[in-house]
Amino acid sequence: EPHVALFGSGQGAGIYRRLIADAERVLRVGGLLSVELGYQDVEVVRPMYGSDWRFIEVTQDLAGWPRVLSAFYHPRGAGL
Questions:
Q1: How many Cα atoms occupy the beta-carbon half-sphere of 34 within 13 Å?
Q2: 34 — alpha (psi -120 to 50), left (phi > 0) or beta?
Q3: DSSP code per residue over 12-75
Q4: Longest pairwise C-alpha distance within the chain
Q5: Using one digit for the tens of pLDDT, what is the confidence trace for 9-67?
Q6: Closest to 37 in 3D by CA, of 58, 23, 20
Q7: Residue 11, SS3?
Q8: Is the pTM of this model over 0.85?
């Protein structure tokens, strides 16, 4: 694994904020964004997916830790 994958980049949760904002800019309605979570990041990252995201799901790794957070982009007014 690259050093940054093991020890972080010093950006903290900011990288998730950037990823989500970029996804909202480029995804079509119904597009899926999945992010790998760092240790104990789920409670920080989940609220970053605002009201334009649906079906937010957390998948645990084999040790039972929250590891992947996935959600479908569905902006307000786009209809379900």
A1: 7
A2: beta
A3: TTHHHHHHHHHHHHHPPTT-EEEEE--TT-HHHHGGGS-TTEEEEEEEE-TTS-EEEEEEEE--
A4: 43
A5: 555 688 899 999 999 999 999 999 999 998 889 999 999 999 999 999 999 999 999 99
A6: 58
A7: coil
A8: no
